[in-house]
Amino acid sequence: MSNKDTHSRIVRRKKRRLRKRAYFILIPVIVAFLGVISYASYLYIKADSVFSDAYDKDGREKSELRESAVDPKVDNVSVLIMGVDASNVRKNADSSRTDTLMVATLNKDDKSVKLVSIPRDSYVYIPEVGYKTKINHAHAYGGEDATIETVENLLEIPIDYYVKVNFEAFIDVVDAVDGVTVDVPYELREQNSKDKAGAIHLLPGEQQLDGEEALALARTRKLDNDIERGKRQQAIIEAIISKAVSLNSILKYDNIIEAVGDNMKTNMSFSEMKSFISYGTKGKNLDFETITLEGNDYQPGKTYYWQLDEVALNETRQTLQQHLDISSSNMASEQTINAEGEQSTN
Description:
six-stranded mixed sheet; 44% helix
């Protein structure tokens, strides 16, 4: 056999070995890839089913402060987040007040979010009843519609979507991401979701909290006030979002979807929800700003209120309008009507 034939055999043998090695490497890669595709498909189907069940087509095609309906794929939009204290223990699903009120504005161009916390005791005009009282009463008077109208009148921006969740969702989502790390400002004892007094005991300092503990921290205001309570809620929400979009939570999305969907009501379709994925893909780089409505204690009689500071409120209105890229002049007629209604009650 010639040297040339021997060399050819050696080359062919090496190629066979390389192919075998390639197969051994490619097979697990292909299997992993197929697994990812299968899991993603499963999550998509589950999310479609769960969130479609939570969808409530309320007949409100758009905000009255919008000239035309928005498309979150291309438009800047706002979302009203309502946390209600309804529970099976309290049996108050139809008459619950909002324990948490937040407005998120989302800017499509720079993928930024501004989250405004509205103190539950804020003394505001509620169009549904025609007089001023605590903003958290609006939901008890007229559900989502009355709350949306009240917030639009207060912040002078259109509310495009709403998401209403109860306390069970808060607990389940935190547990679904295996807890969140937050800073507890002081020692506290708080009731749990079953209204058992003193069931939750937390010491001050940064620590990881489970769902029940995070809810207790979000609800308490015994040692400070509603403003600090709102800031804690914002910090917890930021921690949940940060944990949820991390790579470590990918395999927990199944539980997250189920936790949210089982305890949520929204006028946002699944198709519209998918439009917000681009914000989540920025992960920890998401431009996320929290805002709290400033004010002072106000107690004209036996009832305590939070009197909003008008100068600071106007600044917040302008910030949100700019973030949504809308002009306050477009809403002048609506504001005039609401102002006249408010004046007639004073």
